[in-house]
Amino acid sequence: MALIPSLAVNNEPLFAEVNMGGEASTITVRATVVQASTVFYDTPATLDKAERLLAEAASYGTQLAVFPEAFVGGYPRGSTFGVTIGNRTAKGREEFRKYHASAIEVPGPEVDRLAAMAGKYKVYRYGRNRERWLYFILHCSVFLFSRPISWKASQSMPTALERVIWGFGDGSTIPVFETPIGKIGAAIFERDVWQASMTHIALEGGCFVLSANQFCRRKDYSPPPEYAFSGMEDDPSPETVVCSGGSAIISPSGSVLAGPNYDGEALTSADLDPGEVVRAKFDFDVVGHYSRPEILSLVVQDNPMSPVCFTSPSPSKKAESSKRLSSFC
Fold first, then answer.
1. Where would I find the beta strands (DSSP E) of 182-306?
2. Predicted local confidence at residue 258, as pLDDT
3. Do 242 and 218 contact (CB within 8 A), yes or no?
4. CA angle 120-121-125, nearest 5°?
């Protein structure tokens, strides 16, 4: 994975590190996972909500905030987009058009606004959004440190029916960032075994895991018939919980530092001691003293892949298009 260095402005760090006490050399980082619902089909209102939540988190001293999957653009929970094997419906195509319209472009004005929020509140913001590119939607994560710094990481493989509506990234879209508060990376994956998976990742990676999930009720989506939940005999009542959250923060030793929260929308925070990473690596370092590369190794193809290859020099527009799309070529 590529390690992306953090930048500074006027030779000063973008964000101050905060000493929360303890040993003189100990720096802790206050992190917050945001558990909240999208304003479905309304991207401007979702951005307004994101700023309110980020401002509140910053008022508690948060330095790193993680927003849930598909917060900007929305997670189309319960929708089939009219797809059955061998058939698609006109209603499903129109539903996809509306969903496509609610996604954002990266870079784009919505990302500029989110970056401005990160700079205004002095918070590293990581958010998982829906990016619109040509006629498909890319499920991507956007890291926002301030206006000069932003990057995206794309989901390598959508799950099950998600593959009908989302594209996928390649090895060039799974970066790791070097920042004043430590290395930051991201992953997007299945939620059915949420906390067990988070604990396993923390233990094996020797890292802190900030796990953010939406908390949604039926009323957070458009009412029927505009939006219908499939697989249910009757449409859920407005107060029915359709995504129960479970956001949590896990330490490198597998301890639950905060959460899981299943009660409603919430900001869940914890103070992270980077020394915990070093202590965990002493026990188990999967790419260090515990690795056996002569037996088993992992190769990450981190160069951009294109679905269209030109054997002769191509115009800049073709080059840009092939750079943005993801496949194996």
1. 182-184, 209-211, 215-217, 241-244, 247-250, 256-261, 266-272
2. 92
3. yes
4. 105
Q: Token match 């269209």: residue? A: 308
| Cα 144 to Cα 124: distance, rounded to the nearest angstrom | 6
Q: How far apart are CA 54 and CA 38, in angstroms?
A: 14
CA-to-CA distance for 20 and 29, rounded, in angstroms? 8
- Residues in Cβ contact with 34 at an 8 Å cutoff, skipping those fewer than 6 apart: 53, 54, 57, 65, 66, 67, 68, 71, 212, 247, 267
Sheet holding 176-179, edge to edge: 3-5, 176-179, 182-184
**What CA–CA distance (Å, rounded) separates 188 from 197?**
12
Cα(115)–Cα(99) distance, integer angstroms: 23
Q: What is the pTM of this model?
A: 0.77
> Tokens 């951005």 identify what position?
47
Q: pLDDT tens digit string along 239-282?
A: 988 888 899 999 999 999 998 989 999 999 999 999 999 999 99
Give dist(CA 260, CA 250) in Å, integer: 10
Mean pLDDT of 171-179: 77
CB atoms within 10 A of CB 249: 26
Give the contacts of 275 (CB within 8 A, at least 6 positions apart): 26
User: Measuring CA to CA, which residue among 71, 261, 286 is closest to residue 200?
Assistant: 286
- Average pLDDT of 151-168? 71
Q: Edge-to-edge strands of the sheet including 247-250? A: 209-211, 247-250, 256-261
pLDDT in tens, 41-97: 888 999 999 999 999 999 989 888 888 888 888 888 888 888 888 899 998 899 888
3-state secondary structure of 112: helix
